Amino acid sequence: MKIVLNGGSRDVAATTLADLLDECGFSGRVATALNENFVPAASRADAALSDGDRIEVVAPMQGG
Amino acid sequence: MKQFYGIDLPNPLMLGTAQYPSPAILEQAFRDSGAGVATVSLRREGAGGGGQAFWQMVQSLGVHILPNTAGCHTVKEAVTTAHMAREVFDTKWIKLELIGHTDSLQPDVFGLVEAARILTDEGFEVFPYTTEDMIVADRLLDAGCRVLMPWGAPIGSGRGLNNAYALRAMRAAFPDVPLVIDAGIGLPSHAAHAMELGFDAVLLNSAVARAGDPVAMARAMMRAVEAGQLACAADPIEARDMAEASTPVIGKAFLS
Asked: pTM for this one?
């Protein structure tokens, strides 16, 4: 299906948020949002993806 | 020094982690200055995992981590970012920024109060980036904030304390609330001024990170906040309009 990951469109085989992180090579400390709603790490395996979903994956960065 | 949500800080300097010429200089600025709090952020992660190396370095500093919601313009955006930050950084602390004006980066104080109430109800310990407005401060405290962070001047402007009168009034109105000057500091003298007014800490980033020698400037800022803190505790004299001789007149030889 086609999703939008961190602002970029891509085709993925994953059907859950957890699988998406694996498929796209994310590891370490990240937080996720699905269609602008926070999805805790413990809920990623239950978060089913649909065509057109918008996913944000964020990590620690420099900030002021 | 007052506690910040039950935490004793080693000193009154909080440093941001953005805009340094290199990670090594960032690390050295923290180590040389001894700043006890580091502000950090969340940004989109690439598949290469660039955020993980940064996180390891910040953790190695052994400082308190204060995640921010920088760049958020709506209550929902700020609250969602806070949720993500709590999970990633494993802390209840959040520097709540809710920007209302593009040019001045002045906080949207109405949304700020709303977001602060939501987050404190959810157990967050909120450090709100606010203006020097006393009524907004009241509302933030009503919303559950136990720390206030009024701006000195617009973020990154380096102008110092634009409204020292209002900041002094805020200090007097909330004697028991930890108050931090956040934003606008450009020089060590600005930081010292904030501490001389009785503020409990200073949070700054650009003044150090964008200095020609960030490590030296970080050291200078630490000395400035410590000097200002000492001066405040030493009960400074009142300013006068006219001179007052410091050398005693009694005993002066009559020579004319």
From this structure: 0.94
